[in-house]
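User: Fold this; tokens only.

Assistant: Input:
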Amino acid sequence: MPTAPILFVSSNPSIDLTEAYPTAAWDDGKRIDFFDRRFDPRTMPWIDDRMRPLLDTSPPRHRAKGTRFWFAAKRRASEMLEREAQAGRDFALTEVVHCKSTSEHGVADAYGTCVQTWLRPVMQASGASVVVLFGVYAKDAFHTTYGIPPGVPMTGPHDLDGVPRIVLQLPHPNARQPRANCAPLTPQQLATVRRHLRQPHAGRARPAR
């Protein structure tokens, strides 16, 4: 959602061939609903309350297990907001390469084109005041596009495409590093993030372009 105050950016989405995912047979309304309201329980049950995606089965059912990456994002958003975060309302997810694959297959080949084509439009559409980068590709994209020093846990706030944003570089949920909380942020940095999220600009809607 463009008004979510926290935006998580990773390399590319993983693929599950059994998942209900837009195809050429879907109409535009259904595609928009999938991408824009995927975590909204009032529409299609794309994701249930256990973070399980809808499968392309008959009758429709959800996957047996939830998605670890989504759980990790929710935990970190909850820690920053100091309450249970709701996906789609309190945080949004995006990638620097938008094509699905397993184990980041093909990301290196598509990286340059995707970053040049989509990174700024995505950021311009987002009102997030805190941006969390997961993985090498996301960190490199923000370094080349915005000059964010790679490997620095927290920078900002500074203006990124019209919004004062703090940029966090945290361990990827799949990395063998602490991932149950916002390490390696110091307590002082985490307090700064929390104050920033309480400001009126956090998650403000962006004007149509």
